[in-house]
Amino acid sequence: MNLHPVSPTGADGKILSDKRNQEIFHIINDKDEVREPSQFGFVYELKSVNVKQGEQARFEAKIRLVSKTTYINKNLLNVEWRLNDVLISPTNPRYCFGFKSDECRYWLDIRQCEQVDQGVYTIQIQYNKLHDESSAYLFVDSKFIKWNYQREM
Fold first, then answer.
1. What's the superkingdom here (predicted)?
2. Nearest 5 degrees, angle CA 87-CA 127-CA 136?
């Protein structure tokens, strides 16, 4: 179901002002375009990563947080990272969280990846009542140690 602005008339038959017009929506159907005053979500979603054991991995996302009608305080944006639906603690030294607020880019670095780091990583973003998430998989290739030995003769 999509919402579209319509041009309603007031009780006196006059068309309501543009500002008031933008606040009134009419349900059309699922095939029509949605016009919303706020845009929220991911410009670039997380992508799956494949690393060798012991290497560093990075997940990065860019979000869209735009409103044509209200001021948006990016400091109120809540960002959480999860591994297999478990919140990653910001105090864990294996993880490094980063962001560039002016570009709306957020990343998570995983230092010295091990097999236990393999799984689904999710970034969840929330601003007021708006929320979205993006997920990707980390594959960690095991190191195989080659044993060289000589036969005794």
1. Eukaryota
2. 45
53-81 pLDDT tens trace: 999 999 999 998 887 666 777 778 899 99
CA gap 25, 130 in Å, rounded: 19
Which helix H or strand E contains 3, and what residues bound it? strand 3-5
- Can you give the length of the chain in residues? 153
Closest CA relative to residue 44, chosen from 107, 95, 90, 116: 107
Number of H helices, E strands in the chain: 1, 11
pLDDT of residue 1: 40
Q: Determine the CATH number of domain 38-141.
A: 2.60.40.10
CB contact burial 31-67 (16+ within 10 A = b; e otherwise): eeeeeeeeebebeebbeebebeeeeebebbbebebee
* Numbered ranges of CATH 2.60.40.10 in the chain: 38-141
Strands (DSSP E) contained in 7-150 are 25-27, 38-44, 49-52, 57-67, 78-83, 86-87, 95-100, 105-110, 119-127, 130-141
